[in-house]
Amino acid sequence: MQTIHTSARTTASDMPIGSPTAARVLEVQQLSTAFRSRVGPLTAVDRVSFDVAQGEVVALVGESGSGKSVTALSIMGLLDARVAAVTGGRILFEGQDLTRLPESELRALRGDRMAMIFQEPMSSLNPSLSIGRQMTEGLELHRGLPSAEARKQAQALLASVGIADPERRLAAYPHEMSGGMRQRVMVAMALACKPRLLLADEPTTALDVTTQAQILDLIQVLTAQTGTAVLLITHDLGLVARYAQRVNVMYSGRLVEQADARQLFAHPSHPYTRGLLASIPRLDTPRLRELSAIEGLPPALDERDEGCAFRSRCPLADARCSAAQTWVEIAPGHRAACWRAQEAA
What range does the domain containing 302 cover? Predict the structure, then answer.
């Protein structure tokens, strides 16, 4: 993982609010990631801090382009070093700083103790290798299983994610499967070695509602049986409400609200969070209402400053929003980066 360390403003209020009871598997501290450009580094992830405890599902939510996937790729050490790099902060996996590990040690962790379900399975699976070869590789490499035993386990994994006739599917190639089937293969591969940390980046993309529930229930069983820590990256707040214990709301590369899931849905405090929740269709209202939308677009990477990035779209914004926002504690374990958060709560 290529890392360029720069100074970062770190105070007690900048550190993540975490689970007080379980051991922390992942601790992200003041993480910043930038892309190279002709005009200089463009920060895509800006001083982000959160953690995930053993046996816990923590959600990272926000619009497309908010920096969620870049955060996950930074954690896994999968950034393309030619165009992007971690520029500050630490990523602690079971107490070990991933930003300082050589690539050989990161490679030994990936697919074994830490795994990722990628958002786009067609570009993540190797088109020249059969599904069986791609699934057994990790089991043979990380678990030392003989080929026959690895294939047997791969077949069972495919069955567990709802793929019919798994023995025949092991001989298939990615292009011979539908998008939903490829997504289920990605889930099975990620779960193969029962990782300590699972990063699930939109894990139910291209899946029907029934299969979505099946996949996420399977992940939930994994956390209960093995204590796997799960970072669920999604824009689907319905999934967050059902499966996550804690939520981190991300906007334009920065976290803007952190809370227990129930607290967040009951008392959203940042205007962006309230906008996201207001845009969800509801069946419990007495009559149909017009869907709410957040007007405008997030700022481009080269347009950001120290002020609140949401202010150009916020109905409550005023001159104070041009300054850097400090975290406001709403309740124990619930805070928002908005000077009006306490008033809103």
Answer: 245-345
